[in-house]
Design a protein that fits this description.
Elements: H1 2-23, H2 49-76, H3 85-101
Helix pairs in contact: 1-2
Length: 138
């Protein structure tokens, strides 16, 4: 909503600046006064249109710069993806299920394997880890 409002103000100020710049007389306009072009400047008063149009252009240029900076700030913010009601319900469902699952359950101990073999046959002895060095052959 804020982004759209700033964009509208930005476009309006841009178009108004363009219109005001086009309505202002350039520095070479005084040359046309000898041919009858100077009479149109009396619409804005004795001081002419230069002062009023210059002020309006400066004000609109300031508005344009402020909206440009504001749009940059608004556009650079990271926005969390919008979630629907169903997404929120999915997030709440596991949170509600965990307290019921965290209740202590009666568990029977698992049987453990015996430490020694239960067969009656004697166990074989393992070979030594380091065999004795062989005697040199002659």
């Amino acid at each position: 909503m804020l982004h759209t409002t700033l964009m509208i103000i930005h476009f309006i100020s841009a178009f108004c600046i363009i219109a005001l710049v086009l309505m202002q007389r350039g520095k070479g306009a005084e040359a046309g006064a000898g041919f009858g072009a100077g009479a149109s400047g009396t619409v804005f008063g004795a001081r002419g249109a230069g002062t009023a149009l210059s002020r309006a252009t400066a004000i609109l240029a300031g508005v344009f710069m402020i909206t440009s900076l504001s749009l940059t700030y608004v556009g650079s913010r990271t926005v969390v993806a919008p979630t629907s009601v169903l997404d929120r319900m999915k997030q709440q469902a596991p949170a509600q299920a965990t307290p019921a699952q965290s209740a202590p359950a009666l568990a029977t101990p698992a049987p453990t394997a015996p430490a020694s073999p239960t067969s009656s046959a004697p166990a074989k002895q393992a070979a030594p880890a380091n065999p004795a060095p062989a005697s040199p052959a002659r």
